From TrEMBL:
Protein source organism: Nocardia terrae
Gene3D superfamilies, A to Z: ESAT-6-like (1.10.287.1060)
InterPro entries: ESAT-6-like_sf
Name used for this protein in its record: WXG100 family type VII secretion target
Domain of life: Bacteria
Length: 104
């Protein structure tokens, strides 16, 4: 026979808050990365070397956008985790209240 299962909505809410905090930090990192590389050619010049550095097949522009997009996607995953945990905590709490009223 299976053991007893206990779930504490307040602990689930704490995990949701933690996931939300991570989402906020990741989104901030993606935004800051995009801002940091937005000056364009000023950072590396508009000569052939600068153009190759920035716009080559594996250039800085493409690589930095890929990294920012990946970080943003990770932030979206943590946003979904936050939302799912919050919804779960609400449902657990409502179920507990409903069961308490049924047996009271």
């Amino acid at each position: 026979m299976a053991g007893r299962v206990q779930v504490h909505p307040e602990a689930v809410r704490a995990a949701a808050k933690f996931a939300g905090d991570i989402q906020t930090r990741l989104q901030s990192m993606a935004d800051n990365a995009r801002t940091a590389v937005s000056p364009g050619a000023a950072g590396w010049g508009d000569d052939d070397f600068g153009s190759n550095f920035a716009d080559g097949a594996k250039g800085f522009s493409t690589s930095s956008e890929t990294m920012a997009t990946g970080t943003e996607n990770l932030a979206k995953s943590f946003e979904k985790l936050h939302s799912g945990l919050t919804d779960s905590a609400d449902k657990l709490q409502n179920t507990e209240h409903g069961n308490t009223e049924t047996f009271a």
